[in-house]
Design brief:
mainly alpha, Methane Monooxygenase Hydroxylase, Chain G, domain 1
Length: 374
């Protein structure tokens, strides 16, 4: 066979298609897939360890994987919180069950007492015991299955603690996720959304959108949702760092990220204000005159210029020429708004919109960001 090989030809190893590699990588780091794998591993390890525990608790090994499952959460801090809530809820449920046992064998009165008191305690101790029906469920199990058997209660509690401990160990040591990239992506999306919305305000001027045009609501709803998502993503990313051993290898100043989100929320707030002002002013209201034709070109230029600044702006970089162009556009808008003012209407919508655009520009100016960080 070797004699039939063509000289100079090398054996080529087939390569995976880049798109396929990207999909495989995405599947490998899918949060739900990772959580499922870790939960399965924790349950299996908890069961194995539960069988090795001496004494009465070894008769109830099935509560160990249950404890691991109840404690499992995508973040390490979340797993710790759920684990502690599970143990506290179980302990309170056992106490309630033994209070009911003193009244006699399980009956409709004792069962009702345990369930009612458990749900009530769950509501009052939402942060400590997790709320919901955990306390009532634990108390019901102990009352109906264990009754006066102290060994059952002890086994239930010990094996649950074992499962929670295994779940916490797996959560902390097996690929604990950091969601920093998600937060950065949501912040970037909010910035681009605000920039796009300002560009759309210029489009609204050009196309003379009607007051009841559905696009006004779409702009507001999209920007509001993006602002909520950005803060939620950052809070979740911050939570994912707590107790996470990987944070040492991925250092990040989350306080700076929070300042970044605050700036973007200011930008979003002013953009929403601009949207409302323009919707009312474009055709006028019963109390306000329509936006003067003479001010519209300057207003449209200002929308475009400030939108361009937002589209480029990040925490680390800016474009001085683009920033200067936006400042010139705002000065032109100020002059146009002043030229269209009158004694009857000294402060028109154009001036108010110009002030909001000025506030947006102030929020993203690099010198102001540096002063804020000092």
């Amino acid at each position: 066979m070797s004699q039939n090989r063509i000289p100079g030809r090398r054996l080529r190893v087939p390569r995976l298609d880049p798109a396929l590699k990207s999909r495989m990588r995405a599947a490998a780091v899918n949060p739900q897939l990772l959580l499922a794998a870790k939960a399965a591993l924790a349950a299996a390890l908890a069961w194995t360890l539960a069988l090795a525990i001496p004494g009465t608790p070894s008769e109830y090994p099935y509560y160990a994987p249950l404890g691991a499952l109840l404690a499992m959460y995508p973040t390490v801090s979340g797993t710790l919180k759920l684990g502690l809530q599970t143990v506290v809820g179980l302990t309170l449920g056992i106490v309630l069950a033994y209070v009911a046992v003193w009244a006699g064998d399980p009956n409709w009165i004792t069962i009702g007492f345990v369930v009612g008191a458990g749900v009530l305690l769950g509501g009052f101790l939402r942060r400590t015991a997790g709320g919901g029906s955990g306390i009532a469920s634990a108390g019901l199990f102990v009352l109906v299955i264990g009754n006066e058997d102290l060994g059952y209660s002890l086994g239930y509690l010990v094996q649950t603690v074992v499962g929670v401990g295994v779940g916490l160990a797996v959560s902390a040591l097996i690929f604990p996720p950091l969601h920093l990239n998600d937060a950065v992506g949501q912040m970037s999306l909010l910035r681009r959304t605000a920039a796009r919305d300002l560009q759309q305000m210029g489009q609204a001027l050009e196309e003379d959108w009607a007051e009841d045009d559905a696009r006004w609501a779409e702009v507001r709803d999209g920007l509001s949702a993006s602002a909520r998502d950005a803060r939620s993503a950052l809070q979740y990313a911050d939570e994912s760092r707590k107790g996470n051993v990987r944070r040492r290898f991925h250092p990040r100043d989350v306080r700076e990220d929070y300042r970044h989100v605050e700036v973007l929320e200011v930008v979003a707030s002013h953009t929403l204000n601009i949207t409302n002002l323009l919707q009312d002013a474009l055709h006028g209201t019963s109390r306000e005159r329509p936006l003067p034709v003479a001010v519209r070109p300057a207003l449209q230029s200002a929308f475009t210029a400030v939108g361009d600044v937002l589209d480029l702006w990040t925490v680390e970089e800016d474009d001085a020429a683009m920033l200067a162009a936006a400042e010139r556009a705002l000065r032109d808008l100020e002059a146009a708004a002043y030229g269209t003012s009158s004694r009857e209407v000294p402060f028109g919508a154009a001036a108010a919109i110009g002030m909001s655009l000025h506030r947006i520009l102030q929020a993203v100016r690099p010198d102001l960001r540096q002063a804020d960080g000092e």
